[in-house]
Structures are given as structure tokens and as C-alpha cells.
Design goal:
mainly beta; Immunoglobulin-like; 4 domains
Length: about 350
């Protein structure tokens, strides 16, 4: 057998072995005259070009979700991924008779054996990259190029948050603490593998911060508020987003103090100002979250009947008392009537 798997047969033909790489081979042979003495021989060279048919097929590796921490196996370019296997002379190639030119950068990588891996945190999208296979040992090189296509489809899940209670001026926990990207907790940021946070419907008085917390304004009234927000996977094409609702109960601490307005002389004809229930009348101010209330953040239920009245701003007045004079007149009149 000659170099590279060639065999010179007794009938003068040359057989090329099934694993012989493509290339140009020189087969030197000798012929001798039978019975000649001395020997009568001559040599010559036969040139054989081995040209194997290498075919690389395009590969569709389907839809795959990636990991945020580890590489994900996506298949092999040498396998049948919808268009048939890559072939050498009509037979499926192997790692023994072909070499794959490795792809060692980018989100989708291919090793020398044709194995495809997806890097951690690769954004959702459809990726198409070329790959090249070459016949092992071929001189000159015998290579073919095809494409692999893989759809990365990561699962994003924004989860509604349980109600949290805070007072005006306070902050909630991060609303994304229970949100997931491919089953792992999300991280808010601008990098690949992280998510972007935006507000969708933010009630007046509440602010959705960039770190996922919600700030309740210092003048926000008590009540239950729904904050709708959206998280989107960075770099995804098309966009990969999900929405959720965080419920914030604002519960302000309102304290009304008893008031002693002291001793006041009234008028028989005009109302008399007696002070304000919102002021410090011996027991301290009425407070909202520890700060003295104002007419801007509290309303006083007015008292509009009786001798002591209170308006909507908390001002106390004492009504005129002409009825005292009238009572004395009536008593005198009755007494006079009894003595007549």
C-alpha cells in the first residue's frame, strides 16, 4: 500500500482506500521484462488526484432557553438538524475524518468536534452564524461552510407582589425580589443577563425608584395603591418583557390630642374665638406621622350646632348668649305678674 491508502493492484489499476484524504498522490511503479538477464526494467510515476465530496448542511437547532450562570448545550453541527447530516462522499462525517473550525467568541460557540454551546445570559433572539468543516488531512484543504440557526427564548416572569404597608415618606422593598429570568432571580441593571425596570401605572404620590423600591411621598394620604411595573430582558430581540402589580398600603399615624382651651368670657352679641383644636392646648399638637398637622393635610369635621362650634379648619368659637338676659326678663315678668 502506498502513502495515503492507495493500492497498486496486480492488473495495474490503483485502488484508493475509503478513508484516503483528498489530495494529489504520486504512485511510482516499475515494469521489468520477463526472462531478461540481466534485468531489464524501467520506472514511471502515476499521478492520482483524490477528490472527496464534502457537503456541509445548514442546521436549525430549534428553540433553547439559556442559563444565567452556566453554558447550555445546543447540539452538534455534524448531526441531522433538519436538513440531513454533513457528508463525506455521501456518508455521514465523523470527528475522525473531519475537523470543525472552532468558534470561540460570541454568544454561540462551536468546539473542534462540532458541539454547539450557548453562553450564560445570552439574550433572547434568533442567532445565525456560519461554521466550517474541513476534511482531515486533505492537501490542499477541502472545506465547506454552512450556517447554524438557533432561537434563544428566555422565560421572564414578573410576579405580583403581596401588599406592603408603609407610612408617608417611607420606602417599600424591591418589587422585583420575586421576579425571575429563566427561573433565577432577576437583577436590575443595564448589562446582558439583567433586566430593565419601568413604571407602567404609578399613582400620584408614589415613585418607582431605579432600584425597584417604591417611595411614598411625605404628603401621600392613607389608602391602598396599585403600582404596575414592567421588567424587560436586556438585549432581547424582539423585546422580552412581563408586567406585574405591587400593592402599597399607605397607613399614616394620625393622633388627635385632647384640648383644654381654658376659661373664656363670652359676648352677648358676637361669637367669641376660643382657639384651635389643631394647636397645642396643653396636651401637645395633633400629629400626622409624628409631625404637627396642618389644614393642608387634615380636615376637621365641623360642629355647626350648639354653643361651642368648630369649623373645618379647627377654629373654635363660642356663640353669643342673649338668652341669659331674656331669661332674667321672663323671670322678672312672671314675678311681677304674681304680685299684681
Amino acid at each position: 500500500m502506498f502513502r495515503g491508502g492507495l493500492t497498486l493492484n496486480t492488473d495495474g489499476t490503483i485502488t484508493v482506500g475509503s478513508t484516503t484524504p483528498s489530495g494529489t498522490y504520486q504512485v511510482e511503479y516499475q515494469i521489468c521484462e520477463n526472462g531478461a538477464n540481466p534485468a531489464n526494467c524501467d520506472r514511471a510515476i502515476a499521478i492520482v488526484e483524490v477528490k472527496n465530496d464534502l457537503i456541509a448542511k445548514d442546521d436549525n437547532l430549534g428553540t433553547i432557553a439559556t442559563s444565567t450562570t452556566a453554558t447550555t448545550a445546543a447540539g452538534s453541527v455534524l448531526a441531522n438538524n433538519g436538513n440531513g447530516v454533513d457528508t463525506l462522499n455521501g456518508v455521514a462525517v465523523t470527528t475522525a475524518n473531519t475537523d470543525v473550525t472552532p468558534v470561540t467568541t460570541g454568544s454561540i460557540r462551536i468546539d473542534v468536534d462540532g458541539n454547539v454551546t450557548i453562553q450564560p445570559s445570552t439574550p433572547s433572539g434568533t442567532y445565525t452564524i456560519p461554521y466550517t468543516i474541513c476534511e482531515t488531512g486533505a492537501i490542499p484543504v477541502n472545506c465547506k461552510t454552512a450556517n447554524i440557526t438557533v432561537e434563544v427564548k428566555n422565560t421572564i416572569d414578573a410576579v405580583d407582589d403581596a401588599k406592603v404597608t408603609v407610612a408617608s415618606g417611607g420606602n417599600t422593598p424591591n418589587v422585583t425580589l420575586n421576579d425571575k429570568l429563566n427561573g433565577s432571580n432577576v437583577t436590575i441593571g443595564a448589562a446582558v443577563g439583567q433586566v430593565s425596570l419601568t413604571g407602567v401605572n404609578i399613582p400620584v404620590g408614589l415613585t418607582l425608584n431605579t432600584d425597584g423600591t417604591i417611595t411614598v411621598g411625605s404628603t401621600t394620604p392613607s389608602g391602598t395603591y396599585q403600582v404596575e411595573y414592567q421588567i424587560c430582558e436586556n438585549g432581547a430581540n424582539p423585546a422580552n418583557c412581563d408586567r406585574a402589580i405591587a400593592i402599597v398600603e399607605v397607613k399614616n399615624d394620625l393622633i388627635a390630642k385632647d384640648d383644654n382651651l381654658g376659661t373664656i368670657a363670652t359676648s352677648a352679641t358676637a361669637t367669641t374665638a376660643a382657639g384651635s383644636v389643631l394647636a397645642n392646648n396643653g396636651s401637645g399638637f395633633d400629629t400626622l406621622n409624628g409631625v404637627a398637622v396642618t389644614t393642608a393635610n387634615t380636615d376637621v369635621t365641623p360642629v355647626t350646632t350648639g354653643s361651642i362650634r368648630i369649623d373645618v379648619d379647627g377654629n373654635v368659637t363660642i356663640q353669643p348668649v342673649p338668652q341669659v338676659v331674656l331669661t332674667r326678663f321672663l323671670i322678672q315678668f312672671v314675678k311681677q305678674e304674681l304680685h299684681q
